[in-house]
């Protein structure tokens, strides 16, 4: 039967076709018309079926593929960056060992955007190539795949910014038994990607099924250069082709490119990229005499004097490694060189896939979440799925944060190669479970969940370095067994409901434990045992030692927030603990004793001295839950305020002494200074300088006898003094100190009305910039607390600014931060006064200073106060800026007073 016509080429071509049609050979063909809704049979008797059963995503439309206005369906995969796969069955093919997989991609401006996409195409675990439809449209990719599983996945992955994959057809064809194997080293670890398949000497278009019963596409020759020397021959099918294992169809071998007039016959075959290529040259002796020629590859003789006898058929198979272009030249030796067909394949690795345990565990996890994670095919190869990280074919990280999991499913325990597991914010509740088998796990992030219990498996995660459990609902005590995690570097327990002492086993210099935002959690047993769990406090932070910092004795700092205080009073003591262990030792002990008598600048008093100084504790000047405050007089006549800590508020000896040591170093004219202390087995006593003027609050709101009339200029002076003290804490101290409790009752006045800030301590310290932030918490008195604290649970310098802004408003308005005295909308000072002051309205200014202030001075003070109490901490000014503005307001008021000769002070 004649299927195609004779053609004449350069006047010397006889083409005669002899094709034996193996009637409608279609065993094992699978032909998918992508996006089609019905099956059909094409002109070559190939039956096509819709692709819907093999893919689970994408949308369909039609295009005019060949310019004939016939609509051809296509499938495209819009708005997704995840891999999209077809699962193609390979088990139904008649020849199970090798299958040809061919996909055609066509854009044809289906979306009207005139932007042809570029995307990756992969087969199984092998990343093959990218399809660039602006280079060629349609584009055909063809692979020869060694069947190793029942299903092979053909996947497309969009490239950011380069449009979305689009596919028009997919075909699977069994390849002849035993063919192409040598190219693949007889191993299932390689696949071939077709680069060229040329029907030499033939010019009338591509030939395929049914001429090639395997439906390979043999391209016509004229597209390949140089073509000008080509000549075609054909001859009847009398060859014995059984020695050609690739089984090229007889019709293909019947034509040849023959060198008739020149010495060299050449194919220049450009390659898209460097790699290993497999080449097959087919020769069939169609000439009346034998011919011999040198086969040259890229200019070098590959085979000298290669001879083809008449009627003989031969193929030449070889692999070239690391080439990026290919020239095949046949150079005449005797009679005309010729060639009948050639094939060129790129050899690609098929990396081993991810273990099936891992794959099925991930599939179970995917099916247990409500969301489609888009996981298909191999998790790691050729590219990792979303949420997954891999090393080779091992899944080493998994990030499901933000996805509702509710519990840690047992299948997580099958992901044995995991090094990082991030399940923060996944609504996990109950206990931490099912992770005990993850022996390689180094980072575990379970933060922002509702976990209530540590469970019993964490201790077996022997390689764990980082364990983040912050913002959960963990209750009770921290299990001692966590100390078995010898690799642990960071344990974050912030914002849970934990209490009690931290196990000693966690107390080592290589481990940072963060504990703020818990009930009462610290390494100090005495404190935590004694405190009722309702008291919210926290913060023990162990900061690992820094190297080369001259501070080698400072290895561990335990800062702690004023638990003492928290209770109601607002005054708190915090402490810092220096462990003075040498670098080598594990700091398993809370530091060594410091010789009290050598404390810098502060004096260590005996209890007897204190008792006599206070005249046997005669005059009480304050009392709170932390202890009582007595007035005293030292032997040198200096007046002091003596604070005796209640039993339950006492610190461990080491802690207390270290605390004293650090407090003693903070000296500034606007900060109340520590004069000394007394430490006896039963008592812990702090001795402060005594400030006879009382607190700012007393002076503004106290009973009449205590109250001094505060003029505007005095108020500004107090503000400037306080700002100076705060500036010192924020900027001059190392480590920086956040006061945490700035309020009018903590601003004390001496007899010259100089203001000093009281009640600061190291609980508030911020560490140096390179160290870990020591977060702190203290319950500021209501009305002064930074509104951002409710969301961040952290007090910062800007929180002090807010509190100080409230003090400034008190000075301006002469009223308390929260007051039931007026109308309901004036209850909160900030909310009430800020709008007036921002608008330059002075109707909220304290009546008692009305008419005595310079408006510019007031305007500046009001403005800086309003800015300091901004909700958004970011836009609040720094203390230096506040101080500068207050100084200006102060000097303006001074000049105003001078010019009006108005004297109120
Ligand atoms: C297709 O198959 C039918 C019978 O199944 C046959 O009559 C017809 O000739 C075939 N067409 C081609 C182009 O092979
Ligand atoms: C497998 O082939 C048989 C006939 O050869 C066919 O009936 C069946 O539908 C095929 N199965 C698949 C999954 O293609
Ligand atoms: C696709 O090919 C066009 C034309 O050759 C080129 O400009 C473009 O950069 C290619 N796109 C990608 C993503 O490689
Ligand atoms: C074809 O050649 C092979 C060896 O190459 C030989 O075994 C076979 O008998 C030959 N067949 C015919 C029909 O000559
Ligand atoms: C292949 O041939 C082309 C044209 O003849 C030439 O430019 C190119 O350098 C050749 N490449 C090699 C590797 O010989
Ligand atoms: C080429 O090989 C043929 C037969 O193998 C031989 O007769 C001929 O002499 C050889 N020619 C050269 C130049 O080596
Ligand atoms: C938690 O996830 C939700 C979405 O599931 C997101 O809106 C929220 O911002 C996430 N919260 C945190 C703290 O990551
Ligand atoms: C855990 O997740 C939270 C929320 O995204 C993040 O802030 C934190 O840094 C993570 N922890 C670790 C140790 O990476």
Automatic annotation (TrEMBL):
Domain Protein kinase stretches: 615-897
CDD domains: STKc_IRAK
Localization terms from the record: Membrane
Class of the enzyme per the UniProt entry, highest EC level: transferase
Record-linked InterPro entries: Kinase-like_dom_sf, Leu-rich_rpt, Leu-rich_rpt_typical-subtyp, LRR_dom_sf, Malectin-like_Carb-bd_dom, Prot_kinase_dom, Ser-Thr/Tyr_kinase_cat_dom
Source species, domain of life: Eukaryota
One Pfam family from the record: PK_Tyr_Ser-Thr
Protein's UniProt name: non-specific serine/threonine protein kinase
UniProt organism field: Lithospermum erythrorhizon
């Amino acid at each position: 039967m004649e299927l195609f016509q004779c053609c004449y080429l350069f006047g010397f071509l006889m083409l005669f076709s002899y094709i034996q049609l193996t009637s409608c050979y279609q065993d094992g063909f699978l032909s998918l018309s992508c996006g089609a809704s019905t099956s059909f049979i094409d002109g070559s008797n190939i039956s096509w079926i819709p692709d819907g059963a093999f893919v689970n995503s994408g949308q369909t439309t039609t295009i005019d593929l060949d310019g004939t206005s016939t609509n051809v369906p296509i499938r495209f995969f819009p708005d997704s960056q995840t891999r999209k796969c077809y699962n193609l069955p390979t088990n139904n093919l008649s020849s199970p060992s090798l299958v040809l997989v061919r996909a055609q991609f066509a854009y044809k401006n289906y979306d009207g955007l005139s932007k042809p996409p570029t995307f990756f195409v992969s087969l199984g675990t092998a990343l093959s190539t990218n399809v660039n439809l602006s280079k060629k449209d349609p584009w055909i990719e063809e692979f020869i795949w060694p069947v190793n599983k029942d299903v092979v996945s053909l996947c497309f992955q969009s490239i950011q910014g380069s449009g979305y994959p689009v596919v028009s057809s997919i075909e699977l064809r069994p390849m002849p038994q035993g063919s192409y194997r040598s190219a693949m080293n007889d191993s299932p670890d390689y696949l071939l990607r077709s680069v060229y398949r040329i029907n030499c000497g033939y010019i009338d278009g591509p030939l395929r099924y049914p001429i090639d019963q395997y439906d390979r596409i043999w391209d016509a020759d004229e597209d390949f250069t140089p073509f000008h020397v080509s000549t075609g021959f054909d001859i009847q099918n009398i060859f014995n082709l059984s020695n050609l294992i690739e089984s090229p169809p007889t019709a293909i071998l019947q034509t040849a490119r023959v060198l008739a007039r020149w010495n060299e016959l050449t194919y220049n075959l450009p390659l898209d990229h460097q790699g290993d290529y497999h080449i097959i040259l087919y020769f069939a002796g169609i000439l009346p005499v034998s011919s011999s020629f040198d086969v040259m590859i890229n200019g070098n003789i590959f085979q000298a004097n290669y001879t083809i006898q008449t009627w003989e058929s031969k193929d030449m198979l070889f692999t070239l490694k690391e080439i990026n272009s290919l020239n095949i030249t046949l150079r005449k030796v005797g009679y005309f060189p010729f060639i009948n067909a050639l094939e060129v394949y790129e050899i690609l690795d098929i990396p081993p896939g991810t273990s099936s345990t891992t794959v099925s565990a991930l599939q179970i996890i995917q099916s247990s979440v409500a969301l489609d994670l888009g996981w298909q095919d191999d998790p790691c190869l050729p590219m990792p799925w979303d949420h997954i990280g891999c090393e080779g074919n091992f899944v080493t990280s998994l990030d499901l944060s933000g996805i509702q999991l509710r519990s840690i499913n047992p299948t997580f325990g099958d992901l044995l190669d995991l090094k990082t597991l991030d399940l923060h914010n996944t609504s996990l509740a109950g206990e931490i479970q099912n992770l005990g088998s993850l022996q390689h796990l180094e980072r575990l992030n379970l933060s922002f969940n509702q976990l209530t219990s540590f469970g019993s498996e964490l201790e077996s995660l022997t390689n764990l370095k980082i364990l983040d459990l912050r913002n959960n609902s963990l209750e009770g005590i921290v299990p001692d067994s966590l100390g078995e995690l010898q690799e642990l570097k960071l344990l974050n327990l912030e914002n849970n409901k934990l209490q009690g002492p931290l196990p000693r086993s966690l107390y080592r210099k290589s481990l940072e434990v963060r504990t703020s935002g818990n009930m009462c959690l610290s390494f100090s047993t005495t404190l935590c045992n004694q405190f009722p769990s309702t008291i919210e406090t926290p913060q023990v932070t162990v900061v690992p030692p820094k190297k080369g910092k001259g501070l080698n004795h400072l290895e561990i700092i335990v800062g702690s927030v004023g638990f003492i205080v928290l209770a109601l009073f607002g005054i708190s003591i915090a402490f810092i603990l220096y462990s003075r262990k040498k670098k080598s030792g594990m700091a398993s002990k809370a530091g060594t004793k410091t010789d009290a008598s050598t404390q810098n600048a502060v004096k260590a008093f005996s209890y007897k001295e204190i008792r006599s100084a206070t005249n046997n504790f005669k005059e009480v000047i304050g009392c709170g839950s932390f202890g009582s405050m007595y007035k005293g007089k030292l032997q040198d006549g200096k007046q002091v305020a003596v604070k005796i800590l209640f039993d339950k508020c006492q610190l461990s000896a080491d802690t207390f002494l270290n605390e004293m040591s650090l407090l003693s170093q903070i000296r500034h004219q606007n900060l109340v200074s520590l004069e000394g202390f007394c430490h006896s087995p039963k008592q812990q006593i702090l001795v402060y300088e005594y400030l006879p003027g009382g607190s700012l609050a007393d002076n503004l709101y106290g009973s009449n006898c205590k109250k001094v009339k505060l003029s505007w200029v005095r108020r500004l002076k107090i503000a400037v003094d306080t700002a100076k003290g705060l500036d010192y804490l924020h900027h001059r101290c190392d480590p920086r100190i956040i006061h945490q409790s700035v309020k009018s009752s903590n601003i004390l006045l001496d007899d010259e009305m100089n203001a000093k800030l009281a009640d600061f301590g190291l609980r508030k310290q911020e560490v140096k910039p390179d160290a870990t932030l020591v977060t702190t918490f203290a319950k500021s008195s209501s009305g002064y607390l930074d509104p951002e604290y409710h969301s961040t649970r952290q007090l910062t310098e800007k929180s002090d600014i807010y509190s100080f802004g409230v003090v400034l408003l008190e000075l301006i308005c002469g009223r308390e931060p929260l007051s039931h005295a007026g109308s309901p909308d004036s209850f909160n000072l900030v909310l009430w006064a800020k709008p007036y002051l921002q608008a330059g309205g002075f109707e909220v200014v304290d009546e008692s200073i009305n008419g005595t202030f310079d408006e510019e001075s007031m305007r500046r003070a009001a403005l800086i106060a309003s800015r300091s109490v901004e909700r958004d901490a970011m836009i609040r000014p720094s203390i230096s800026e506040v101080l500068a503005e207050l100084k200006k307001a102060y000097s303006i008021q001074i000049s105003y007073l001078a010019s009006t000769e108005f004297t109120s002070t």
